[in-house]
């Protein structure tokens, strides 16, 4: 039976190494690229979670690849079947997996026939319009079945020939990443012109890095034009995924609010994941950090509020907001309009739940102002949003009586989260799975 809630056990402090599962963003990218390359590919350190499993299921449904998942070994293997890439007869359901559906909409333009992609109720509200508007430029016919810019989305292929297109980057970077990823299989050069400012830029850098790792170069003018020249061949082989910086954020926050120390191995200075930027934010709030080439150590300190633009790291905003609730003074988080269109409206959710804990929060259209204090226990609603569950669990390490409802929702990106959190208790120095 699924647990309806968990009560978080408070903890005095801790000093541990914590193993964080692989990056969701890199796992999604390598899975998609492996399916597009048609080359046998092994992804080591892969994140096996709801989102990557939905993506794997969709890729299998196209018939041209087999995807094997070994969760214990954190390995995903993609092998060509020799069959053509064909539109699945049945609707493809991808749950709440936002990045995967955005990659798959353009990818369906490479499959023969008509593909319909859909997901949860929330997914049926998430915007796809900027991608649908850009796809005709590269040859693809795609439309929202209900004409509202959201899933279900119907795509007819094979139609992704490449060419030149214009796209908005203002709502999500995933649309631009999707075109870049899928341009690797186009017959013609693909040129992507941004008509406005791109948000969440580090994710596009991760896309370009993943393409480069598999042998495809992207030409570019900053963030205004990207070009994938045709005739470059994606290679297969073995790729390695580093730990997930968004998943790491909860354990950094735990050290911050408890005055403890956490070391996360396998990720460091050279990471392109924008969410590593949380380390600097926490240092500005009073923590100390040591970042090496392949590890991040953070120690909590006397916390105080800061002013911070978090446009480049939207997924760790809820984490920072929870830390801010324990800091002296006010924290102003700006430039975060995209949080309203994630798994839930995260500005509204964080505001509501922090207020339940007795914290003063001002909610703005694209910002939040949090005045730190002494939060008290509360039953936290999680809105089917893994990040709301995980960040409020951290509040419960410091505050007695925090109850997290629907704890199973963490499976979207971090299925072992509760075991890893439990590992912070106890005397051993390593919190593993
Ligand atoms: O490309 C990616 O892997 C992601 C991009 C970000 O979305 P936006 O570009 O919509 O901000 C992020 O929130 C999401 O969790 C993962
Ligand atoms: C926003 C997220 O994911 P996605 O957009 O891929 O659903 C997330 O994991 O926080």
From TrEMBL:
Compartments in which it is found: Cytoplasm
Keywords for this protein: Amino-acid biosynthesis, Aromatic amino acid biosynthesis, Cytoplasm, Transferase
Pathway in which the depicted protein is active: Metabolic intermediate biosynthesis; chorismate biosynthesis; chorismate from D-erythrose 4-phosphate and phosphoenolpyruvate: step 6/7
Alphabetized SUPFAM superfamilies for the sequence: EPT/RTPC-like
Residue positions binding 3-phosphoshikimate: 24-25, 29, 172-174, 200, 315, 342
EC id: 2.5.1.19
GO biological processes: amino acid biosynthetic process; aromatic amino acid family biosynthetic process; chorismate biosynthetic process
Residues that, per the record, bind phosphoenolpyruvate: 24, 98, 126, 174, 346, 387, 412
Active-site residue list: 315
Ligase keyword on record: no
Name this polypeptide is given: 3-phosphoshikimate 1-carboxyvinyltransferase
Annotated source species: Streptomyces showdoensis
